[in-house]
Each structure stands twice: as C-alpha cells, then as structure tokens.
Design brief:
This protein is an alpha/beta fold and 261 residues long. The chain contains 5 helices and 18 strands. Strand 17 and strand 18 form a beta hairpin. The chain is elongated and about 65 Å long. 37% of the residues are buried.
Length: 261
C-alpha cells in the first residue's frame, strides 16, 4: 500500500507541537501530529507556567489559566520580599486541560493527531521522508518531542545534555497561600541549582522543586520546611509528577534540510 502523502509531520503533542500543528493546518498544509501517549494532556510532566512573552502569542481560554502579577521570593529563613512590575505577568495553567484544548483547536483547523504509538524512525526519500511505521510520506518534520528528542537523535541535531530534575505535587487547595502570588524559594540546601515553588493554578496549587544533577530532589524536605507558611499537611493531594528540565540553552544545530526542532 502506498504511504499517505502529507506536507508536515510533527512529533509531540504538547504546547509547541500543537500550536505548530494548528498554525500549519490553518495555512493549508496537510498536517499530522504523532504522540506517544494515549491522548494529548495525559501524564503531564510540567507546571505549565507561561511567561508574558509566550502568553502574548497564544490566545489562552480564561478557564485554563490564572494571571499572576507578582512573585514572593523567600530566603532560606522564610523571610520574603514581594516583586512586581506593572507591565509584566505570568499565566499559571491547568496544563492538561489547556493541552487538550490546543489539540481540539488543531483538529478543528484540519490537523490529524495520531496517539498511542512512539515515533521511532524516519528515512529520507528524495526530497521527502518516509515514516514506515505510520504509513506516511511527508515533506517536512518538526521535532517537538521533549528533552530527549528522537528527532534530534535521528537527524544528528543538537541534543540537550544538561538537565534539572523536578518533582511536583498538586493540591486541591491551600487556604494559607496567597493565590495572587507565585511563591519562589531560593535555598541551596533544598533546591541546589534552581528553586522551589508554590504556584496557584486555576482551581488548584502546584508545589515543587528542581535540583541540578549533583543533588537528588527531596520534595518531602521542602514541604516540611514550608509547612508553617502553607499548611500542606492539611491539604488534599490531587496528583504527583516528575520530569527533566533542559537547562543548557538553545541546542545547535536546531535544523537540517526538511527538519526543524
């Protein structure tokens, strides 16, 4: 059977991949997204905080986001200072819900999303690429497949080599937390190389920390340390997650003929 001809295959159905898919489909490109998970938004590994520069580029539905205009920055002693700017903000998000919304928008624009199979191989064939396991032939490939990109590996593009390790827990509510602030903790003992956070998302709170590769993240120790401020022990846990955070800056090269990260 002849492979199906398309213009663009995108590997990965998270923020970058789905926004790319919607944009391409709206411009008339036959677009297919390949996602290893069973559905977009499943098994999230990110807090999903959008900085202003990203939020200004995306029309995010209000039910999936909360605007944060100030940061409360804590010292190891738990003394703090509040920082804000009249012209700056963050959006915290219901990440799973927002990704599912982006997926539906991409489909409405005409993109096809294939879930539940991991992308493993692509072969150059003239000016096109063959993806034999999916029966696809495409002009272009975009890799939006995360910190350990298979697209980058297959096409000898730049790969992340420096990572932070993050742990996070979601709470249904934290009555002692100010929901108008992004709470950030600088503490080289609890979060060496990065920080810990309490982020008020739409309808819940995300609490986590990340460390460099020389330390093992100990979320339990942070929760005990900040218990007097937030009362975590009296809150209900919704979900737990972990993941790698690339921290080495832009990779190079990020493109090859017909392929883009």
């Amino acid at each position: 059977m002849q492979p199906k001809q398309v213009d663009l295959v995108i590997i990965g159905a998270s923020f970058a991949g789905l926004i790319c898919a919607r944009t391409a489909a709206l411009r008339g490109l036959k677009t297919v997204v390949i996602e290893a998970k069973d559905e977009p938004g499943a098994r999230i590994h990110t807090t999903g905080i959008l900085v202003k520069e990203a939020a200004d580029e995306v029309d995010t539905p209000p039910q999936f986001s909360r605007t944060i205009n100030a940061v409360r920055l804590y010292a190891p002693s738990l003394r703090y200072i509040d920082l804000s700017s009249r012209d700056y903000y963050f959006l915290t998000t219901d990440t799973a819900g927002l990704i599912r919304w982006f997926a539906e928008e991409a489909r409405r624009a005409g993109a096809e999303i294939l879930c539940g199979r991991k992308f493993e191989a692509a072969v150059r064939h003239g000016e096109d690429f063959l993806l034999p396991q999916f029966g696809l032939r495409t002009r272009y490939i975009v890799g939006a497949d995360g910190a350990r990109s298979t697209v980058a590996k297959l096409f000898d593009l730049g790969r992340n080599t420096k990572f932070l390790t993050g742990l996070e827990v979601e709470y249904e509510d934290l009555p002692m937390a100010d929901p108008g602030l992004l709470h950030c903790f600088l503490d080289t003992r609890l979060a060496p190389g990065y920080l810990a956070w309490v982020a008020p998302a739409p309808g819940f709170f995300q609490v986590g920390l990340a460390t460099n590769d020389r330390a093992k993240p100990d979320l339990k120790a942070f929760l005990a340390h900040a218990e007097p401020v937030f009362g975590f022990s009296r809150a209900t846990v919704k979900e737990r997650r972990s993941g790698l955070i690339p921290c080495g800056g832009p990779v190079s090269p990020f493109a090859a003929p017909g392929v883009l990260l």
